[in-house]
């Protein structure tokens, strides 16, 4: 019996058709992040979040995201209808949907398909609130959906940087590091902390030197 069989049986008894449940191609529906942690003593709910209409509701078991950032890329701007996106990274096992498994919709931006194909955007199929970006190994949640109890909790989700800031719709002078593209792999600009800018410049110089040396070596070969 596959480890997901009990969940599959309960989905069927809740009225889901066999073709929505059976077979290898439906396995993902019963694995993290969609796996239900009912009666799981290891899953401790620390936060709760929900979409605008309330059909989709979830819990989180990790106190602090692995990291949090603001993304100014054009895909986020369009898909969120906002100047930039606030995302917090979690493991897939950190989330438990308590409502709305059947009310989710998917969108994969390179093929523009609404099939579940990773990495994809996950939203409420009814009110269309973006719920998360599901990557191959991680999920990026949108903390605006979480009901924080006080500032202390919210501070744990504080973004550590801006990414794709080169594509920004507006300037945000908050002193956070600002990467032109992906964080750690592009240039730091505007009012990024001076020390970080110097460090990044040195890294870029070193990378260039290594590149030149590498070319010289290749020429010799
Ligand atoms: Zn909704
Ligand atoms: Zn983005």
From TrEMBL:
Pfam families documented for this protein: GFA
Gene3D superfamilies for the chain: glutathione-dependent formaldehyde- activating enzyme (gfa) (3.90.1590.10)
Domain named CENP-V/GFA: residues: 47-158
Keywords: Lyase, Metal-binding, Zinc
Zinc among keywords: yes
Keyword Metal-binding listed: yes
Matching InterPro entries: CENP-V/GFA, Mss4-like_sf
Biased composition (Polar residues): 1-16
Listed GO MF terms: carbon-sulfur lyase activity; metal ion binding
UniProt feature, compositional bias: Basic and acidic residues: 202-221
Residue ranges, annotated region (Disordered): 1-24, 200-221
Family: Belongs to the Gfa family.
Protein name: CENP-V/GFA domain-containing protein
Species of the source: Lachnellula hyalina
